[in-house]
Write a structure and sequence with these properties.
The chain has helices spanning 14-26, 42-51, 69-77, 95-102, 118-130, 134-161; strands at 3-8, 30-35, 57-64, 82-86, 111-112. By secondary structure, the chain is α/β, with parallel strands linked by helices. Strands 2-1-3-4-5 form a five-stranded parallel β-sheet, with helices on both faces.
Length: 167
């Protein structure tokens, strides 16, 4: 089975990155999660990104804040898709991270989700893998039907109780 790398620069990113891991687990996708600082331990980072393909990774999800170099550097070294998650920051609310990740130079694309968008990063990885895995695609379609059913159930409850009594 395909494997996904999840990498973050700090353990403070764990609450967001764990949402990506939760989604991958829900779909039965194997992953490896690491904390690696591209700035503080560049040798470890380069080894990680250069060996990801031989480890069987098909996608890397990289979360980063502020200068947010981790996703872009992964994309520069890893030949397959990289999904960047910009982290919320106290100084600029994550806009600094977002701008850093989405403004990659031509030839080094990074798919980017919303600030703190861990769950969507996991789902995007699932969708990428599902393009070549019919069983995974079937699970993804079931998941989408479950989401639809949840919204329908909430609307039915709203219609029954009215918005003042909706809980």
């Amino acid at each position: 089975m395909a494997k996904v790398g999840i990498v973050m620069g700090s353990d403070s990113d764990m609450p967001v990155m764990s949402k990506a891991a939760d989604i991958l687990e829900k779909f039965g996708i194997e992953y490896e999660m690491r904390i690696i600082s591209a700035h503080r331990e560049p040798d470890v980072f380069f080894e990680y990104a250069r060996t990801a393909e031989e480890k069987g990774f098909k996608v890397i999800i990289a979360g980063a804040g502020m200068a947010a170099h981790l996703p872009g550097m992964c994309a520069a070294l890893f030949p397959m898709p990289v999904i960047g998650i910009p982290m919320h920051t106290t100084s600029l609310g994550g806009r600094d991270s977002l701008y850093s990740i989405v403004q990659m130079p031509s030839g080094i694309p990074v798919a980017t989700v919303a600030i703190n968008g861990g769950a969507n990063a996991g789902l995007l990885a699932v969708k990428i893998l599902a393009t070549s895995d019919p069983e995974l695609l079937s699970k993804l379609k079931e998941y989408q039907e479950e989401m639809k059913a949840q919204v329908v159930a909430k609307d039915e409850k709203l219609q029954e109780t009215g918005y003042r009594n909706y809980k």
